[in-house]
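User: quick one, sequence for these tokens?
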């Protein structure tokens, strides 16, 4: 007795007393919120004291969903994309076989002359990579990969985890992985797997200490940037300077892939449009940066500053350039894929990749500055 605690719940961002998807606000301190058919992803929960003080317990229960809440996005390590599955059976989460993270997506159980697929949609330009494997009747049952319903490649038989990389052109594209069986015979595990899916869009690369300006047009609008952090760096500071009033812009940063509002390494999310993120002892490689409009619109500037780094005396550096969209030469289709293959190889040989440029990023000025 003596208190009035309320309960607020909101999808994909923190609730407030005026912005929520569900609330419990009776005059007691015991509240319940039920959300039927919840969206996939994170819900944020806020116990709130309307009056009084005291201890409380909080419990959230998810019904259904399979796999203890693990989604296909979790399984392939990319919850920023929306995943659907179908055919004669749905793909499932597999916690016994994985390339990365302890789980993967596995094709559904089907019989002869059937298929099972998983797919997602992305907006280019950018570079798309994934790992896959298969255990099937060799040369008859296949795991196939499609872009916009056009088959790109396929694997069959006993194939261990292997990475594939594709340069994605501008616009919306549907990517699909389909396991197909012929009319007879089953061999091996009779399925395919998908894991560690990464889409790196044509994000603007920032130069350390140099501000870049752009704008967000409405709530939920976002932009993406990246900055290359060299070996030996001691700190990464990212500063977002937004409009003076009327908006709430937030800032998200993540190593090696684009952040989302629920998946990040660091964030700034005050109620203003000016945010700062500091990462001490950052990893070597790219950090991806997302200014995000929680509410309102307007212009902003973004600046990322790397402290330290530059490597020790005798360090080896490499600039990697991959261009496959040059209109006057038709045999450059694998150049971006080759660039993606060179990066881990050179890093394994002790090189610091000071700049990685593909297609529209690889302007004459950008290449000269990188060199």
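Assistant:
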């Amino acid at each position: 007795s003596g208190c009035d605690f309320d309960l607020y719940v909101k999808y994909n961002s923190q609730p407030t007393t005026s912005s929520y998807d569900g609330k419990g606000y009776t005059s007691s301190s015991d509240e319940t919120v039920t959300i039927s058919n919840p969206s996939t992803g994170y819900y944020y929960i806020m116990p709130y004291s309307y009056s009084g003080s005291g201890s409380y317990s909080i419990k959230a229960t998810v019904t259904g969903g399979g796999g203890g809440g693990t989604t296909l996005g979790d399984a392939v390590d990319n919850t920023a994309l929306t995943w659907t599955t179908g055919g004669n059976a749905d793909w499932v989460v597999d916690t016994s076989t994985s390339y990365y993270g302890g789980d993967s997506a596995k094709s559904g159980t089907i019989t002869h002359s059937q298929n099972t697929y998983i797919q997602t949609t992305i907006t280019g330009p950018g570079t798309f990579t994934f790992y896959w494997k298969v255990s099937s009747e060799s040369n008859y049952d296949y795991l196939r990969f499609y872009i916009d319903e056009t088959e790109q490649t396929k694997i069959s038989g006993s194939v261990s985890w292997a990475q594939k990389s594709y340069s994605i052109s501008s616009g919306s594209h549907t990517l699909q992985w389909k396991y197909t069986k012929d009319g007879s015979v089953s061999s091996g595990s009779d399925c395919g797997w998908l894991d560690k899916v990464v889409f790196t869009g044509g994000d603007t690369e920032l130069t350390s200490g140099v501000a870049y300006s752009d704008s967000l047009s409405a709530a939920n609008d976002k932009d993406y940037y990246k900055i290359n952090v060299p070996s030996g760096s001691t700190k990464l500071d990212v500063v977002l300077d937004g409009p003076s009033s009327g908006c709430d812009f937030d800032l998200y940063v993540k190593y090696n892939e684009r952040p989302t509002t629920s998946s990040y390494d660091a964030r700034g999310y005050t109620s203003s449009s000016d945010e700062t993120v500091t990462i001490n002892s950052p990893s070597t490689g790219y950090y991806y940066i997302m200014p995000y409009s929680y509410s309102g619109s307007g212009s902003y500037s973004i600046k990322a500053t790397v402290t330290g780094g530059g490597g020790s005396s005798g360090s080896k550096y490499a600039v990697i350039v991959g261009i496959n969209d040059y209109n006057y030469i038709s045999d450059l289709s694998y150049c971006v894929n080759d660039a993606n293959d060179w990066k881990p190889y050179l890093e394994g040989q002790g090189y610091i990749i000071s700049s990685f440029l593909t297609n529209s990023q690889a302007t004459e000025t950008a290449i000269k500055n990188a060199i």
